Amino acid sequence: MSKMIPATLILGDGIGPEIVDATLAALDALGAPFEWDRQIAGLGGLQTAGDPLPKATLDSIRHTRLALKGPLETPSGSGYRSSNVRLREEFQLYANLRPARTIIPGGRFDKIDLVVVRENLEGLYIGHEHYVKIDEDPHAVAMATGINTRAGGMRLLEYAFEHAVVTGRKKVTIVHKANIMKALTGIFLETGLKLYEDKYKGKFELDTVIIDACAMKLVLNPWQFDMLVTTNLFGDILSDLVAGLVGGLGMAPGANIGADAAIFEAVHGSAPDIAGKGIANPIALMLAAAMMLDHCKLPEMATRLRTAIDETLNIDKVRTGDLGGSAGTAEFTKALVSRIHKPS
Ligand code: NAI
């Protein structure tokens, strides 16, 4: 029996508890050695502990340095600040790794194998926003400040380039908007180009593209890309676009990696429109759990989980509604667990 690994578990809001339960069933079937410390955050944290990011949750992650989390609800426009953003800041989770790989062949875009590496702490996400009142209108003007630093860009770009080398990516594309936001995104581009020249030239091909052109190119011919590296907001948008290429948000995992901790989650949110209906697709969180297993140096278990997902979808043809099937979360999970137990 391998040594137990302490890890924080956050069920999350909306469909969170349903997809976390499903993921735990898969991890249990694999015999994954996680010793879970269950904590709360998001709307659940606010309702139960009066704080969307309670101290006990932060203390737990400080101790385990590892977490699997369901999606957390954030009110739009007003209300409390995103617990996701706060978690990233608290643990300096500067790199957001979002791989997208086709699992169900024959879709609109086949054989996609792309990874988006998103800067996770800077840019327009820093929350420096305010309104200016004019006459009777308190929201007459809205202002936001974005901050990108050379040091912040450098550590993310180093992480991305290193990841490209280790995982054998052939081409890395820096996505920017330095033609308009010359300073804000120019600094990221400039830092990436210099880092490549200084340390990575010859290890992979480097390309650059403006965000709007990138969005179009991804839809016309996504196979021309291998790894996209970009700033916070562009990465947020592009990773949803890329998720769409492989069957939607239900298939897109994400890892938030930092110096102090690593937090694994689905790219999607709490899906309040389908919460409690038992129809959510748990695959994105399961794939995030596979990334967590890789991170914990358990690649064999990660591969078994990915293979079981693949076989459940493509051999057993058990699929949730978002993938055109008729299975609910529980039925899919049951089929997946029996696949894990079945030698392939
Ligand atoms: P969403 O990702 O929750 O939902 C968008 C659409 O995709 C909905 O129609 C939903 O039903 C569907 N969907 C999402 N995940 C699915 C799954 N696993 N299976 C089947 N269908 C799925 O985005 P939305 O509605 O914009 O956000 C809802 C809440 O989630 C907001 O409060 C938002 O702030 C939060 N959110 C949290 C994130 C996180 O915790 N990392 C990330 C994104 C949003």
Which overall shape is indicated by the principal axes computed on the Cα atoms? globular
Mean pLDDT: 95
**What number of domains?**
2
Given this structure, which CATH class of the largest domain is correct? Alpha Beta
Helix content: 40-55%
Give the N-terminus to C-terminus distance in angstroms. Answer: 22 Å
CATH homologous superfamily of the largest domain - what is it? Isopropylmalate Dehydrogenase
The third-level CATH topology of the largest domain is: Isopropylmalate Dehydrogenase
Query: Strand order within the widest sheet?
Result: 2-1-3-12-11-4-5-10-8-9
Rg, alpha carbons: 20 Å
SSE order and pairing:
Layout: E1 5-10, H1 16-30, E2 34-39, H2 42-49, H3 55-64, E3 66-69, H4 83-90, E4 95-101, E5 113-119, E6 123-134, E7 137-147, H5 150-166, E8 171-176, H6 186-200, E9 205-210, H7 211-220, E10 227-230, H8 232-245, E11 253-257, E12 262-266, H9 283-295, H10 299-314, H11 329-341
Parallel strand pairs: 1-2, 1-3, 3-12, 5-10, 8-9, 8-10
Antiparallel strand pairs: 4-5, 4-11, 6-7, 11-12
Helix pairs in contact: 1-9, 1-11, 5-6, 7-8, 9-10, 10-11
The chain binds 1,4-dihydronicotinamide adenine dinucleotide (NAI).
